[in-house]
Amino acid sequence: MRRNQLDLKTFKVLKQKMDEGLLPQWVTTDPEIYELEQEQIFARTWQFLAHESELKEPGSYVTRWMVNDPILVTRNNSGEIKAFLNSCPHRGAHLCTADYGKRKTFTCAYHGWSFNNDGKLIGIVAGDKVYGEGLAKDEWGLRPIPRVGSYRGMIFGNLDPNAMPLEDYLGDMKWYFDILLGRSDGGMEVRGVPHRWVAKANWKATSENFAADPYHVQTTHRSTVEMGISPSDPLYAGYGHQVVMSNGHGINVITSATGRSKHTYQGMPESMWPMFDRNLTPEQADIASRTTVFVGGVFPNLSFVSPVHGTGGHLHNYLNFRVWRPLGPDKVEVWCWFMIDKAAPEEYKEEAYRGYIGSFGPSGTLEQDDTETWARIVEANKGIMARDKELNYNSVSNYLMGFGNVDPDPHFPGPGTAYPTCYIDAISRSMHEHWLELLTKDLVDLKEEV
Ligand code: FES
Ligand SMILES: [Fe+2]
Q: Which of 35, 72, 321, 436 is 20–30 Å from 57 (CA)?
């Protein structure tokens, strides 16, 4: 079927296909779908902007993007976090073009209006002579992002003034964030600056890869098996639990076949274990101490992975957060943060950082494996054949591995619906269902119409 425009009939068909576990291939990179995603999803959901450790002191700032909206995030002189549209309200010039720094004021390069780190307009070139008393300065400050929230140091923004509170949006994910971000006294800190690069990929494919797809690991990252870094057991990334949450979020809690990791607390120094035990609930400590890899995502486009890397006596663990900023239906700008426990020994932090650089980010071997695959998806989905073919989201247990034959594990101690395997399409399906729900919200009531 070739569509000329998105209409009710198109969405009805899409919903029916998805209920059967089939995802029409054209939706991945369709330009009209992409346009709708901007309005229906990215303008309404919480998006990650920065970690508080990137804004250490009053006057610190970073510049970010919420898809096409440039954002200026500041810590004002009172220490509060603020976020503004990084565009001068006079003629709209992009105000601050540096990536980060420390400033009390921001001066526009076009006509010289200046603003303080609270967003207030404080200076107008030749103001008295040009405007006299006629300009109400209070009304011409920087435009604040409608909603800003933070959880465990993670600062998010939302362009929808009526959006649900951040904590409600994160829902069950908070419990897992408490493990990843709250296990240490002092929390986590960003080391270095976020790496950025552009990849040929659709944001849904990259988000799904992290949130929902340990099944790809044994094949895409086969070289790690061949080098003896990963186990040769083809099920090795499938052991553990895949946890589905509301609002399209999900996490994979990957262990070994025994349900434990060889490396207690992901290979973090033993001296830190009592601190983890103290900061976590017994259930969280149980999971954190026996997990090898946490990998997941916050819908729509924030992903994270907390792996164990290294061999012999040189193990390291860290947290990598990344935002897939859509630049089009077939392109993303990747923003990639390295985080580590503030309380970890300096030597360990440096070693972990080196491990991260070798695995993820623009120079990382694992990163390049995935990037190649995402580009191939984009290339294959734009052709004529893809217009009426479907992708295989056929089951909760895996694309074509038997619908409904895996039940949730009632004994898993964490919140969410936990399936006792990570080789399963549970999060993929939930993500896409949520995607369709948001995409069609206010447009059609599919439940009633179909
Ligand atoms: S556009 Fe910024 S001062 Fe004119
Ligand atoms: Fe991968």
A: 321
> Is the CB–ligand 1 distance for residue 124 below 6 Å?
no
The residue annotated as part of the active site, out of 30, 213, 330, 425, is 213
**350 by DSSP, 3-state: which?**
helix
* DSSP letter for each residue of 338-366: EEEETTS-HHHHHHHHHHHHHHSSTT-HH
- Tokens 């070798």, located at residue: 358
Find the catalytic residue in 30, 172, 341, 370.
370
Nearest residue to 248 via CA among 20, 424, 445, 436: 436
> For residue 300, is the peptide bond before it cis, meaning its omega torsion is within 30 degrees of 0?
yes
Q: Which residues have CB under 8 Å from 127's CB, separation 6+?
A: 135
Q: Where are the domains of the chain?
A: 47-152, 171-440
Q: Quick one: which atom of ligand 1 is closest to the CA of 91?
A: 1
Residue located nearest, by CA, to atom 3 of ligand 1: 111
C-alpha 214 to ligand 2 mean position (Å): 8
pLDDT by residue, tens only, the chain of 450 residues:
444 567 888 888 899 988 888 899 999 899 999 999 999 999 999 999 999 999 999 999 999 999 999 999 999 999 999 999 999 999 999 999 999 999 999 999 999 999 999 999 999 999 888 888 788 899 999 999 999 999 999 999 999 999 999 999 999 999 999 999 999 999 999 999 999 999 999 999 999 999 999 999 999 999 988 988 888 999 999 999 999 999 999 999 999 999 999 899 999 999 999 999 999 999 999 999 999 999 999 999 999 999 998 755 678 999 999 999 999 999 999 999 999 999 999 999 999 999 999 999 999 999 999 999 999 999 998 888 888 898 887 655 444 343 457 889 999 999 999 999 999 989 999 999 999 999 998 875 555 554
3: which 2 tokens?
Answer: 């569509």
Using a 6 Å cutoff on CB, does residue 108 contact ligand 1? Answer: yes
Q: Do the domains 47-152 and 171-440 sit in the same CATH topology, yes or no? A: no
For the Cβ of 67 lying below 6 angstroms from any atom of ligand 1, the answer is no
Fold of 47-152: Rieske Iron-sulfur Protein (2.102.10)
The rounded Å distance from CA 154 to ligand 2 centre is 24
List beta partners, residue 337.
321
